[in-house]
Design goal:
Blueprint (H helix, E strand, L loop, with lengths): L4 E3 L11 E6 L2 E5 L21 E8 L2 E7 L10 E4 L1 H4 L5 H19 L11 E2 L6 E2 L6 E2 L4 E10 L2 E7 L10 E4 L6 H13 L2 E13 L4 E12 L9 E8 L12 H23 L1
Parallel strand pairs: 2-5, 10-14
Antiparallel strand pairs: 1-4, 2-3, 3-6, 4-5, 7-8, 8-9, 10-11, 10-12, 11-15, 13-14
The structure holds zinc ion.
Amino acid sequence: MDQRFQPGIDPPSESGDSLWFAFRRGDLLVAGDSANGHLPPATAPDFPADPVRRQFLGWLDGTPCWSAELPDDAPDPEGGAYVGLRDLWGRLDDVTWVLAGRAAQIVAWERDHQFCGRCGRPTDPVAGERARRCPDCHLLSYPRISPAVITLIERDNTILLARGVAFPAGRYGIIAGFVEPGETFEEAVHREVKEEVGIELAEVRYFASQPWPFPHGIMVGFTARWAAGELAPDPSEIADAGWFAIDSLPNIPPKLSIARRLIDDWAKRRHETTLSDDASW
Ligand SMILES: [Zn+2]
């Protein structure tokens, strides 16, 4: 997220224009026709039911932003719709889409931490912090974030692409998996790749990261080079894996994902390499 959004905990005292991210069962309430174009989040007076809870998020371009949880049985809105975050990518501007993901995670966290996970007492909000505290045993709960690593692996002029057993038909992606307790990101990269396709890596380098609100992840992207071993996919996770050249790529992930950014970046580097090679002649 760029500097247009400033996070905050304590809401402003004056009431004025606000931006609302209201969810019913994880789907965002949007104004307008769900089939068309840019969809601004619906504003509070348009809510079809009173929110169960609401949270102040901060300011987007100076406008106060809120998240809200609508009841599971909230009726469909007049002149609006509930739409899943994945389906909104490219239809909200990028900053608003990322903010909607932040809102979805905070709504889900507050919903799921109404009671202490240790002793079961109802929890209280903590002033000035995004946290809830048990009044009895004082256990603090913060929004949970689960990091996962995702790695683009190059071998000569090809990259490794794999089909997860649960992928849509024909879709290939790159190797990813959750970080385990006690592990560094780099150790998770080596372990996941070894477990899923049986190869060794060299030159593991950080690329970029992306919040992934499905439901509370952050994808940490790496590039690496094949070092040793032949592909031996784990059949419980990987239906197929192979090395693909730039002119024979299969169906790859959509542009909202860091997987696609990694592949696009590789394609760009390949293209530039080819161009500079040609230029040297
Ligand atoms: Zn407790």
